[in-house]
Amino acid sequence: MQTEHRDPMGTPPGVASWLRDKADVGLVVDLLYEVIDPELGVNIVDLGLLYALHISDRVAQVKMTLTTPGCPLGGYIDDEIHRALSGAPGIDDASVEIVWEPPWGPPMMSDLAKTQLGWRS
Length: 121
Description:
Helices cover 28% and strands 19% of the residues. The chain is of the alpha+beta class. The longest helix is centred in the middle third of the chain and has 12 residues, at 74-85.
């Protein structure tokens, strides 16, 4: 999702963010790839569940959905997002908002997620 650009000193962007304690949206998205939907075994980014990410006042504001409104894993995924972002540079907290519009559907998944689930893309 993120292209790697180096600063003039040759430091990759994620490392530079850690060194400066400055929030980097690309790094935060990279960390969200660690949040796995336990029912499907695929991360929330490739599943297409992540709708928006905004960082303000050192708070990562995550807007996302779940695969179904009756999904019992909302609390678990919220906890996993907090865990994944804990200690990230420039992030002191995370706010997770679950939304239902637009409704999620399989076309929102990446080709990688479809492959991991055994679907043809």
